[in-house]
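Sequence and fold
=================
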Amino acid sequence: MSGATIRRSANILAVVAVCAASPVAAQTAEAGVSRAEERTATSGPASNFTGSVTVRPVFPASPPSAVYAGEVTFQPGARSNWHRHPMGQHLIVTAGLGWTQIEGGPVVEMRPGDAVWCPPGVKHWHGASPQEGVTHIAIQETVGGANVEWLEPVTAAQYRR
């Protein structure tokens, strides 16, 4: 096993450990299991995304926790608008080939098993490559009722960089 694979596995296990120790996990053990097929997927709104995007909640911010997670699937060529998160955002790529970019930086590939971190307040976008879709789990905290500030669309020129 390569060092990169071990680091990716450690990152994923760390996220799982944090989630398992959360109040949501304790509530789930008492209340039952939240089945994926029971959580309603919705289309990502055109005001926040370019192309075909599906968003399925994984777990809500349940006080006292402020952590929210969603599974987001981008069809080939689909992407988010530029946006930022008040407490930052973690992505765990579960399928496909995606791209992400922090404003002013290079476009970076993301593949299954990759864990991506975007710091608080940093303008960024993410989505699928032109030829292949991508699915990731997005984890962020809610502050004052919001976990994201949506900005302008990523232009075709920015996306194709």
